[in-house]
Amino acid sequence: QVQLVESGGGLVQAGGSLRLSCAASGRPFSSYAMGWFRQAPGKEREFVAAINWNGDVTYYADSVKGRFTTSRDNAKNTVYLQMNSLKPEDTAVYYCGAIRDGPPTPSIGLYYRSSYKYNYWGQGTQVTVSS
Length: 131
Known about the structure:
The protein is mainly β. It contains one helix and eleven strands; from the N terminus they run βββββββββαββ.
């Protein structure tokens, strides 16, 4: 079992920045790749970013590429999502998830993007970007 707790959400003006954290406890954190997803009211949960078990491979949705950066500190059992140049359309509840990592095949990025494959989820943190 892995418990995930997100923090760092809040209200920010367009163009501003936030850093989300996701603290993990339970099974060895380094066994899992970590993903960030978001869900806006009336919309499905969508992929934002993912990072593999040791942090040397990352993936991003096109909508956040160049603005968001995910990183992890396995010594602290924590994954981060640095969000810069925020836009009103980034407003959503942001969730972190843990997924058992797999071999670095060409399809690993698609695997990370599949929310239904994730083993554990945090409770979510609200991010609101005002225009």
